[in-house]
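Appendix B, example 12.
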Amino acid sequence: MLRLLDATGCSPEELGKMIGVSGMTLRRWLRKDAMVVPSVYVAAIRDTCYRLIAENRLDPGLPVVREILADAPSNEYQAAVQNLGLSKGFEVGEKVSQDRILGCLSQIGSSVEKQKKVKKDSKKVSSFKGLGEEWSERITLLWKVVRSKSLSSPDKLVAYGALFYLLTPIDFIPDHIPFFGMLDDFWVLGIASAYYAKKLEP
């Protein structure tokens, strides 16, 4: 806990509030020689890490962060890695090129079942437009790609993959964390949109 506190730069009061304990409780944990955090707070500590990573206040490559996320009982991060088509050995904090992300989205979008789900849940996909103008622009562009009669089926795979990724509940930062759980969906949509904006340039 001391290493996490040092890594975040937060005060015990600030970090304690995020986890759901008082600053005094956190200070008491820090004073114990062989500190063992009560198991009831493990999930809250993990979610706090995800939140701070999303706010760019915590480096996901730090050893203490890797330990906390690797020990997550729900293993959401590794589930997200597999969902995106990245290798099982992919590490928290590892940099991934945009080309690799596009390749993974294309692989996801090549599944006929996933294409059907995107079409079936079109209302749910479109509901994300309400999150803001940039969300709306990105989703609108990807829908245009999917519905285009001038683009070939292989040209549409990245769009299908990105829209399916938006629907899936398992991703890099769990969606149940208010606001922050949606940031990586926005990032994936941005990569796919930029790809098509370039591709569709006259």
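Residues 77-199 form one domain. Residues 183-199 form the longest helix (17 residues).
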